[in-house]
TrEMBL record:
Residues 281-290 have a biased composition (Basic and acidic residues). One of its GO terms (molecular function) is ATP binding. PANTHER family: CASEIN KINASE-RELATED. Residues 249-290 are annotated as: Disordered. Residues 1-243 form the Protein kinase domain. It is an enzyme of class 2 (transferase). Residues 267-278 have a biased composition (Basic residues). Its EC number is 2.7.11.1. This is non-specific serine/threonine protein kinase. It comes from the Eukaryota. InterPro entries: CK1_Ser-Thr_kinase (IPR050235), Kinase-like_dom_sf (IPR011009), Prot_kinase_dom (IPR000719), Ser/Thr_kinase_AS (IPR008271). The lineage of its organism: Eukaryota, Metazoa, Ecdysozoa, Nematoda, Chromadorea.
Length: 290
């Protein structure tokens, strides 16, 4: 709630990835908030997509927009602490190509309200978030920082390339998952991850080098992704996969409709032609009056 209220006071270009707060209040039995309606989560879209993966153009564009949303949240002085595809959603109508960051239920301020200095880390912090995307610090019961949101973000971006890209995707044991995440950051890549543009691995290395008080260079990460796209001849001007799919489907439907109309028009012409032929044939065969 605090985050959405803060968004009301900042410039539009710094809150494009936050849903607009319309109203809030309370009744005798509950509190409520009203927000703009949004579409499906990225997780839901991916699970319904062909082969449960996105094209590289969509993967990188999703990475760029979600990174921007995380950067804007950090600029407000907050960590999300539960970055995952389920917490990003697409907009509706004129905002259908904008990605929104949701669910600030376990978000935490990492700066002091008055001085904006980084808060001192607590000694022990209970596990919060989702095992699949949680950072290694989260697994170790350590205080999280901006790096941890980026680590979770990177797991998410890797999963955009394939639903089973993360080696621990079917593992529930937290210790085993943490060990596998350590292997990833130490350079032990699966065949799939090794096949991705080199810049993905450079982002992993950069995130791993960040410290508790480090201010991430979001633009540097963004530029790495764009460079990887350029080197791989990926066209980032392409629309998201699900939008292109709808456009192609509508185009096919229009084409079929035009064919049906054309076929119907052709049939009418043939019918009129046959009627004329029959009429002419009947006149020739008719006997003259006696």
């Amino acid at each position: 709630m605090n985050i959405l209220q803060m968004c009301l006071k900042i410039p539009d270009n710094e809150k494009k990835h936050f849903v607009r707060l319309v109203d809030k209040g309370r009744t005798d039995t509950f509190k409520f908030i009203v927000m703009d309606l949004v579409g499906n989560s990225i997780d839901n879209i991916q699970r319904r997509s062909h082969h449960k993966r996105f094209s590289m153009a969509t993967c990188i564009n999703l990475g760029l927009q979600t990174l921007e949303g995380i950067s804007d949240l950090h600029a407000l002085g907050y960590l999300h602490r539960d970055i995952k595809p389920q917490n990003f959603t697409v907009g509706l109508r004129e905002k259908s190509e904008t990605i929104f960051l949701l669910d600030f239920g376990i978000a935490r301020r990492y700066t002091e309200k008055s001085s904006k200095a980084i808060r001192l880390p607590r000694e022990i912090v209970r596990f919060l978030g989702t095992v699949r995307f949680a950072s290694r610090n989260c697994h170790r019961s350590r205080e999280q920082c901006r790096r941890d949101d980026l680590e979770s973000w990177m797991y998410m971006v890797l999963e955009f390339t394939d639903c089973s890209a993360l080696p621990w995707c079917r593992t529930v044991d937290r210790k085993v998952v943490c060990t596998q995440k350590e292997k990833l950051f130490s350079g032990t890549y699966t065949k799939h991850i090794a096949s991705l543009p080199e810049e993905f691995r450079r982002v992993l290395h950069y995130i791993n080098e960040l410290g508790y008080q480090s201010t991430p260079d979001y633009e540097y990460i963004s530029n790495l992704l764009k460079r990887g796209a350029a080197r791989s001849n990926v066209d980032l001007t392409e629309k998201f996969d699900w939008i292109r799919s709808v456009d192609e489907s509508e185009s096919t439907d229009r084409s079929r409709s035009l064919k049906r109309i054309g076929s119907s028009h052709s049939g009418c012409k043939k019918l009129r032609s046959r009627k004329k032929s029959h009429a002419a044939y009947g006149d020739e065969d008719r006997s003259p009056p006696k």
